[in-house]
């Protein structure tokens, strides 16, 4: 490893930062991401939080990671394996080495490797010495001490100085990938506006890292990942939860309603509450309720009173909302329920991702109680599907469950900023008086939805409730035939939504050997796998679903074009079972992973090839 | 606005009871106390100077909770126990509505207990009418959280062993700003209290001692029975002395840290010894004592026991809108989307 | 209608009593039932309660009905249509005439037909005069006035006297069906032990009715329904809720555990609480919790502490229990959840029956969270399946949902009393110390269930919880592979139950044209319809399921023996969809009714014949 | 029973802290107040004369709720807010266990509020340890029902507008029989209170003012900070005068219906003027006043504020077993099945 470094050009590269939760790895990763985005790379990120707030320092449980894939080609996932791992301590190395490709670069803070620390990380012996890293290109950099040295003379306590070591590491990464430090230098100025010493210290550490990497010749080469061909326009970075929050606000504005968000905190949904609570001036009311039941009920109250009522939670909280969602379905009021899924059952794996609340979304209510279910598939399209959820719920006057998950919620990607005026119109079915007696359950003929009569409007006084009611008048009715009619009307109303959503798209030729089917957050990995196989000449297509209930009209027609249909999900096969129950004639195979982790492209390709 | 054409309903100061009566057949058991409450409410609303469409009645589940069907206002018969949360959403979204939550003792204090205490704590400007018949009526007679200790019911053949809640004590423990108590046998008092509590800004809790003829007949007999009326009802009025009895010659006096019943003219007691009711006292101490009074030792306190000013959650929400507007970096979603770190791809 | 009456012998007959809810129709019906049972008839009953406690007198909403079918042949349902209707007022006639077969007898209390009362019942004109009854054999009896006359001289107030008119009506019915009054006379003596005047009055009214019927010659004939060929033994009458309660107590006694029943009242499940609360001396603790969540949680606490924890509710309450049931599944503790289904969604039709919580039972929890699901199919076998539920939950250490419904809960039938010693043994998997460190998730090899370690036992101190845990040790684990393993173990554990339940039975030849499939309370109607068709030479069989998750091992093999499989359910087709998702190769048709009412034999036969 | 073989653990009067320490790595943030509470508990249990297997720790969800993992007793980490109901089931089923419910302010007073008040009302013999850090720790810093009005958190960027609950007031409003308050900075007091509350028959509520260094640091600083310790902590002991201050020369006196702080020696105040604490007073009046005392006007009351006798739900349940046995018509299921109306078919 000597001689002047070379610059290698790459199509894409994956880098992973890992350290103690106090080490600032999320910040480091997002700075790297932003800078790469500004350079024009396409990219996708995946933050990997520890389950504890602050697990004991130096333990594997306390490691926080951030992975980003950047490319000059389209990037749909944060990558299966990292080309470069930056590990700030032995615990970070221990828990992250499994994600590094053989032959990849591993940059460690050699200052952090001592008897005490690698014991604490659960290593038997010193991992640097026992050959366990021989398949990797190990770069031992004394990051802590170099940070200290470079900050000598700045009047900061030792703790604050050491905290800057993440910037040192970021500097190394910037050099390694030939990125400018400007964006981060600006960011630091803004972030520490009120503490100039911190601006100085962090900036110096960043630069020290950059120049260290350039100088020491420990690094084999640096890499260039040229800009991707990206649709022109104005971009920003957005995470799934932020996008969901913004999508809902945008829909409320578009429909001219205030937004009422009733919620109870839960990982990984809480950030939607945090985000929305910033926008009171945009007409957003956030109500942190005493529990999930009160949260959804307050949103139902808001919808009844004429606002857009929305609630959000994760699985355990959604399970609690079932009875109230049933009420909203019964009284036919708008309601958006956002389920940011996480690993389960029960409390499960709160910080991990999973797609296992599909059944709960479909069936988690007493009796026959269909609602609309949609799912987003990338962090940024959480915006569109949150928006769609709001549009559908008011236009069809029935609850909509919007499924996101931990992977989308915390993941982020560049997003071409839409213009609000280009967003689909939302037409609210406000009730109107026509000189005759007002009836709350008069229905729109094409949609079967009722009209929204808002308390405070004169002449529309009426009563609704959870008891079965007579069609049109809404009077409580125990009549057998009316009940059957109403159950069918509520089902039909949801089924008819199929006429108002786009046809299902297929990525590929439209027929062939295997149709890969997915839904929700697996989109990136499925798309990458399918494209790679298509590139290799395989007859594989992808149909990735965002509308789950009802399904797009052309679904069965698509399925019939393929010899095999393979449904891939991060659960035990819930969507697959649902498809089988609707299209028993289609032979459905399934591929499942239940590890709290996304699919890797590799494992998908292997499975698909098996079927070819 | 004052024309009276067929199509427009104008602000009508002459709204009457009939205007608040819906066309639905009332389906409580004959003799149920709920009829009187309904009637008192239909008498109270015309006195509030609001329009018919400005009222929303939100109920949970139970016999009491059927109430909205019989009011020709906006009404929502929701699910068991959750009406406070739904009513909160209604009020926060549409603060001009006069929101009335109708609930039974089971609905509010069993399954709905959490929403009940949280509504009171937040002091959202809604009025809660708690029909306390000390039993589950609709489900045909099980123990309720207000049932007297030892009550034999369908679910407690050997008598209930749960110590009952006192709605008022619980409400004050939850920082409630308004508590009134009334009885189904006194229509005038009910109407008066409904009117007054609707004027309180914040969560008004009105406990109505209601008789369930079928499953818990005469549970409030010690207070409501004709022969007990004078001796066991104390009608409180803010600023007035706590006098009761047929001759209004009995009263409540403070003795050290305890209340006691005294008779004017006996043992040198004069009217000056009798406590003056201060419903506006911030301190809950005396209100708690009044709430706890029980026959036969004491008369039951009726009327508005506590009514103190405190910011309401809905007003504070409005203030935060304003505050937020003053500091806002963007005034619409377009600006929000464009804010912060963005970049152009050409 | 003159001349001395004839006695006709019948194979079976259906009689329906209807009156105001205050009229004592349930009592009248159950007395008739008991007397018929004592005579040796087979029979089945169906009480039809009003939704209100006491709806206004004389209104259709306030009508309470009771139908019973008695036979010398096997009786499986209360009958589609009544041969005899006893209607105590116009409202009872109005709401019940629809259930009477054309040509049937309608006995009315003519005293109750006046302008005021038939208006109140919602009749335009006098139904006795407008020809609307011409298809029926109308018997106008002045029941009220005859009752009054016959009780003259008894020192009772008018109200109490009039209350005896139900006994008069019962007397008429006894004569009509040639039944002795003895049983009811004895009953009255016991019931009014403390009020001899009431014994006298009621007895007199009963006899007056009997002799009136014998004398007036208004009745065309009387009927004899001879005793059925019933298996010898000791019998009693039992309703579904009572049977469920007793089944659970019996299981607790058999396993040597105390029973803890945590519940919150709800129609139609409350009677289980009422029933169980009587048996504290049998080691039953009933805990009326503050809500359904506390109810199920208290039961989980009891199971954790080593008792048999059981909870019960109806749909709205079951929807609330989902999160907690998930906890029980995750920590692998016994828990029986009884869902007495009712019409929905939301509050729905609380007093009507439906089978629409199947999906909720299967899927109403966050994430992949399988549990065992069983259903009873007759009032009396609620005993066996409650017992089975308790047996399976402790033997397999996972929650069991037991589905009953309003029809079974309130319906009743004769039941051959089993001997406790003949009930299946229940073997509790108590944990044992073996000198090594204790681990809470060591598993039974054949069942995959863990062992029950009871707090208070020395040396077994351990921690469990809702977070994902490591197999064997139970330590909290975020390990991806362990999570997948555990999700699969929980699924396998439930699947393996198939090895411990009986094979599915088929009623019929075992192959043919149509296999009728049902589950739960539709058994009686399905069986009757299928038997009648088989009797007519049709190739129709019945497979009626009690074990729903997992399904019996031989299910698919059975299905494959038929050209068509018709799944009949009182919902929109939930079990049908489930079967399709599991056996996509079986072509499944469905027949559904969503009216809050059981199937009639007639409509079933029509539908089945369509398929032949 | 006193042999000490390898296979039998005998009643060991010498159990030590170590015996109650599990092998799991404690995972709270460095500096979190929870560590001290854990340690105080591990010190308290050996003093109770019970065996290790007689303890069950039942928790909900939250940072606090991880507690059972660190105790080598029986433990159950359940779901958010429901621990009181689960603990109730445990105690009723296995009354010989010493049951400890571990909960945070969000767990007990937000989602778990209903079970909390009902446990107190029923007076089931469990001990509730409420770790009050006035914030949601585990979910990273949202407003809690005990957060001070106006607190800026992740979910309330403009400050919270919910009026906070006072755990003690709510508990007494719910008819709680035992309430104690302590602080994470005083291990001795904690241990003492844990021991004493475990001896109370009925629901013991112990509020621990706990510091969350990460999301709500120093929220209890006005009470716990070194410089405030003497002036703003009043350590109550039943039967003793309410004295505090560095020189123990300050005290609480009753002035009419209000409490006030006085200094002995000033304005003619003598020790005799100072109130004597009566934790056993049935009447909640003074306990409520003590609970409400807040710096800077008052010291914060610590120690056992209320401890009154009342029948426990678990004892009453037992009594009903007995009662039921006396009147029983059948003594086993066989007899039950055969009871009442039956008939023979031959
Ligand atoms: C989730 C749920 N649980 C239980 C019920 C059954 N239920 C309906 S009303 C009621 C209690 C009624 O008592 P209360 O609130 O005192 O009202 P009342 O009938 O006495 O007026 C119960 C338990 C229900 N409808 N929903
Ligand atoms: C049903 C459900 N809702 C929400 C959550 C998320 N959650 C976990 S702990 C918690 C609150 C924690 O606050 P607190 O009880 O005060 O405990 P602390 O962490 O402060 O000790 C929340 C909202 C959950 N786990 N389950
Ligand atoms: S059951 Fe009781 S509360 Fe309900 S309507 Fe009848 S009398 Fe009134
Ligand atoms: S977040 Fe707060 S309460 Fe939770 S462990 Fe950290 S310091 Fe303690
Ligand atoms: Mg009630
Ligand atoms: Mg907290």
Largest sheet features of chain A: 7 strands, mixed
Strand content of chain B: 15-25%
As a percent range, the share of helical residues of chain A equals 25-40%
The 3D shape of chain B can be described as: globular
How far apart the termini of chain A lie comes to 44 Å
What is the CATH architecture assignment of the largest domain in chain B? 3-Layer(aba) Sandwich
Bound molecules: thiamine diphosphate, iron/sulfur cluster, magnesium ion
- Tally of strands of chain A: 22
Instruction: Extract low-pLDDT stretches of chain A.
Output: none
Describe the structure in your own words:
The complex is a heterotetramer, with two copies of chain A (612 residues) and two copies of chain B (346 residues). Chain A is built from 20 helices and 22 strands. Chain A has 612 residues and is of the alpha/beta class. In chain A, helix 14 links the parallel strand 14 and strand 15. The two termini of chain A are 44 Å apart. Chain B is an alpha/beta fold and 346 residues long. Chain B folds into two domains: 265 residues, Thiamin diphosphate (ThDP)-binding fold, Pyr/PP domains (Rossmann fold, 3-Layer(aba) Sandwich); 33 residues, no CATH class. Chain B is globular. The structure holds thiamine diphosphate (2 copies), iron/sulfur cluster (2 copies) and magnesium ion (2 copies). One thiamine diphosphate sits at the interface of chains D and A.
């Amino acid at each position: 490893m000597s001689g002047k470094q070379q610059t290698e050009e790459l199509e894409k590269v994956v880098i992973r930062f890992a350290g103690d939760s106090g080490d600032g790895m999320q910040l480091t990763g997002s700075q790297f991401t932003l800078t790469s985005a500004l350079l024009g790379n396409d990219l996708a990120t995946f933050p990997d939080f520890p389950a504890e707030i602050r697990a004991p320092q130096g333990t594997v449980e306390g490691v926080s990671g951030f992975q980003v894939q950047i490319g000059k080609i389209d990037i749909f996932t944060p990558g299966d394996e990292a080309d470069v791992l930056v590990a700030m301590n032995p615990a970070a190395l221990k828990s992250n080495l499994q994600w590094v490709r053989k032959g990849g670069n591993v940059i460690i803070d050699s200052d952090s490797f001592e008897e005490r620390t690698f014991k604490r990380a659960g290593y038997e012996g010193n991992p640097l010495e026992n050959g366990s890293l021989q398949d990797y290109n190990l770069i031992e950099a004394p990051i802590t001490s170099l940070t200290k040295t470079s900050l000598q003379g700045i009047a900061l306590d030792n703790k604050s100085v050491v905290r800057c070591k993440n910037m040192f590491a970021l500097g190394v990464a910037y050099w390694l990938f030939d990125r400018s430090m400007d964006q981060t230098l600006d960011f630091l100025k803004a972030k520490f506006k009120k503490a100039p010493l911190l601006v100085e210290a962090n900036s110096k550490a960043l630069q020290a890292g950059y120049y260290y990497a350039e100088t020491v010749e420990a690094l084999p080469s640096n890499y260039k990942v040229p800009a991707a061909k990206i649709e022109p326009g104005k971009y920003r970075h957005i995470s799934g939860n932020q996008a969901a929050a913004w999508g809902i606000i945008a829909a409320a504005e578009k429909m001219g309603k205030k937004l009422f968000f009733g919620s109870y905190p839960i990982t990984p949904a809480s950030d939607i509450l945090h985000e929305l609570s910033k926008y009171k001036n945009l007409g957003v009311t956030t109500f942190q309720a005493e529990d999930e039941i009160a949260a959804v009920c307050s949103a139902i109250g808001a919808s009844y009173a004429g606002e857009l009522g929305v609630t959000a939670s994760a699985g355990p909280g959604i399970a609690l909302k079932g009875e109230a969602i049933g009420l909203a379905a019964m009284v036919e009021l708008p309601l958006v329920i956002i389920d940011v899924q996480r690993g389960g059952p029960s409390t499960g794996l709160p910080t991990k991702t999973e797609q296992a609340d599909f059944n709960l979304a479909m069936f988690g209510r007493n009796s026959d109680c269909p609602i609309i279910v949609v799912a987003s598939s990338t962090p940024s399209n959480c915006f569109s599907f949150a928006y769609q959820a709001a549009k559908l719920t008011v236009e069809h006057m029935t609850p909509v469950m919007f499924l996101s998950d931990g992977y989308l919620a915390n993941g982020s990607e560049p997003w071409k900023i839409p213009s609000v005026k280009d967003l689909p119109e939302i037409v609210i079915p406000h009730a109107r008086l026509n000189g005759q007696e007002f009836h709350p359950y008069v229905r729109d003929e094409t949609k079967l939805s009722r009209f929204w009569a808002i308390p405070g409007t004169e002449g529309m006084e009426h009563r609704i409730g959870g008891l079965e009611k007579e069609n049109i008048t809404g009077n409580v009715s125990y009549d057998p035939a009316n009940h059957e009619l109403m159950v069918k009307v509520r089902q039909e109303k949801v089924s008819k939504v199929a006429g108002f959503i786009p046809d299902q798209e297929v990525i590929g030729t439209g027929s062939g050997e295997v149709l890969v089917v997915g839904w929700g957050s697996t989109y990136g990995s499925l798309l990458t796998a399918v494209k790679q196989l298509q590139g290799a000449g395989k007859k594989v297509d992808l149909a990735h679903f965002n509308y789950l209930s009802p399904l797009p009209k052309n679904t069965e027609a698509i399925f019939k074009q393929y010899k095999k249909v393979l449904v891939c999900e991060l659960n035990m096969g819930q969507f697959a079972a649902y498809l089988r129950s609707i299209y028993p004639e289609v032979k459905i195979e399934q591929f499942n992973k239940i590890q709290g982790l996304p699919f890797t492209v590799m494992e998908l390709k292997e499975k698909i090839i098996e079927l070819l | 606005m004052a024309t009276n054409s067929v199509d427009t309903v104008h602000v009508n100061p002459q709204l009457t009871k009939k205007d608040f009566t819906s066309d639905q057949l009332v389906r409580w058991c004959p003799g149920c106390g709920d009829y009187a409450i309904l009637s008192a409410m239909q008498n109270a609303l015309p006195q509030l100077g609001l329009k018919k469409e400005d009222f929303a009645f939100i109920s949970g589940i139970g016999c009491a909770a059927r109430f909205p069907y019989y009011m020709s206002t906006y009404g929502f018969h929701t699910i068991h126990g959750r009406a406070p949360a739904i009513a909160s959403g209604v009020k926060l979204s549409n603060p001009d509505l006069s929101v009335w939550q109708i609930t039974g003792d089971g609905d509010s204090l069993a399954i709905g207990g959490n929403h009940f205490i949280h509504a009171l704590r937040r002091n959202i400007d809604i009025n809660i009418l708690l029909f306390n018949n000390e039993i589950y009526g609709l489900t045909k007679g099980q123990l309720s959280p207000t049932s007297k200790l030892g009550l034999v019911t369908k679910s407690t053949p050997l008598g209930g062993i749960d110590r009952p809640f006192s709605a008022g004590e619980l409400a004050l423990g939850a920082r409630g700003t308004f508590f009134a108590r009334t009885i189904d046998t006194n229509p005038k008092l009910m109407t008066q209290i409904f009117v007054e509590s609707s004027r309180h800004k914040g969560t008004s809790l009105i406990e109505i001692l209601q008789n369930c003829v079928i499953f818990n007949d005469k549970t409030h007999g010690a207070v409501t029975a004709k022969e007990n009326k004078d001796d066991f009802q104390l009608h409180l009025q803010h600023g007035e002395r706590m006098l009761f009895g047929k001759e209004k010659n009995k009263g409540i006096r403070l003795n050290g840290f305890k209340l006691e019943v005294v008779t004017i003219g006996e043992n040198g007691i004069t009217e000056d010894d009798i406590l003056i009711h201060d419903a506006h006292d911030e301190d809950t101490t005396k209100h708690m004592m009044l709430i706890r009074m029980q026959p036969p030792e004491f008369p039951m306190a009726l009327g508005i026991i506590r009514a103190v000013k405190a910011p309401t959650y809905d007003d504070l929400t409005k203030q935060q809108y304003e505050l937020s507007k003053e500091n806002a970096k963007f005034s619409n979603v377009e600006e929000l989307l464009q804010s912060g770190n963005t970049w152009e791809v050409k």
